[in-house]
Design the sequence.
């Protein structure tokens, strides 16, 4: 067991480059690749200072490669942002939010009897209201009005009106 642990530690440390190894690696890269990698990686990339040192040491003019690298960096950051936005719960109504996974979206609603949820296709918009009173081809939309609770029956595929139509 100890030998296995030591082997894992050794392999982990063996995977790290020393400053000299990094200098040799980046000094042997083509200027186009070195400049592209320097400008297209985020500022927190651990090899950014080593790439900068190699560019300076070699006296490389990265001007021809900067535009493409920055464009690709913005594209990558945009895709990451989109992925984060799609995986974050988003407000859908004044009473609920939704989460999206795979091909479906779950719409959550806070009602007088607690939280309820429905599942819709990912590309659908969550209905403004949710009524779990569905039967056959119709559903019952309920409303709290000044004169008490009212309801209407609509087609199951229809969206409940925002306000009681009476």
Sequence:
């Amino acid at each position: 067991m100890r030998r296995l642990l030591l082997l894992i530690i050794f392999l982990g440390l063996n995977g790290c480059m020393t400053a000299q190894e990094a200098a040799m690696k980046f000094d042997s890269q083509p200027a186009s690749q070195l400049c592209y990698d320097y400008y297209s990686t985020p500022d927190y990339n651990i090899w950014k200072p080593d790439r900068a040192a190699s560019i300076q040491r070699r006296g490389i003019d990265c001007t021809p490669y900067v535009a493409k690298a920055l464009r690709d960096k913005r594209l990558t950051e945009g895709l990451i942002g989109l992925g984060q936005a799609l995986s974050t719960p988003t407000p859908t109504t004044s009473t609920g939010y939704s989460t999206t996974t795979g091909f479906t979206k779950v719409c959550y609603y806070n009602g007088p009897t607690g939280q309820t949820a429905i599942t819709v296709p990912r590309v659908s918009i969550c209905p403004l209201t949710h009524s779990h009173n569905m039967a056959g081809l119709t559903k019952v939309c309920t409303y709290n009005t000044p004169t008490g609770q009212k309801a209407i029956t609509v087609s199951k595929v229809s969206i409940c009106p925002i306000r009681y139509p009476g």
